[in-house]
From TrEMBL:
Coiled coil: none
Residues spanning the membrane: none
Ranges where the N-acetyltransferase domain occurs: 10-174
InterPro entries listed in its UniProt record: Acyl_CoA_acyltransferase, GNAT_dom, Ribosomal_N-acetyltransferase
Domain of life where this protein originates: Bacteria
SUPFAM superfamilies hit by this protein: Acyl-CoA N-acyltransferases (Nat) (SSF55729)
Short name of any one Pfam family annotated for the protein: Acetyltransf_3
Identification of the protein by name: Protein N-acetyltransferase, RimJ/RimL family
Amino acid sequence: MSSLWAGTRVRLRGVEPEDWQVFQGFAEHSGDMRAVDRVYPPRSARWFRESTTSRSTQVGENLDLAIESRETGHLVGGLSTSGVDRRAGRFSYGIGIGHQHQRRGYAADAVGLLLRYMFGEQRFHKCEVKVYEFNEASLALHRSLGFTEEGRLRSHEFFGGKHWDAYLLGMTLPEFLDRWDLPEV
């Protein structure tokens, strides 16, 4: 049996303190940071170490994962869950791929691995994502993966001197099973 955390193009692993320099390099591309979350001021190794340590103490609720290229072994991005609601059976996630690593299928492979784990191992029923209107690549990715647009929050986020809409997209377990298989046992 192969690893649940290894796909065709990527391997997911825990975020390590020494990853901070690569993530800081990703943060230097402001457009990518806006697409993922928002532009933050430069951060130190100490801040990174403390923030990853505090989130890792909430085991089972939020995942913070590094995305590595299987071909090169290089860190190419990050993936984290949020909004985990075990009672309702839903979760959200955010993904970011470093600018120099985009358009190589890394995001699609990483999301597929995450969905297999969350639906097949953690018993979730629904995944939700929020994508800003200017992030056409992410909208196209999520639609191609089978996510359905469920709503639009008008003038929801402020970036670059303007308010932008946010699209809400979702996928249920039956919709996932229409496209993918659950992990083998």
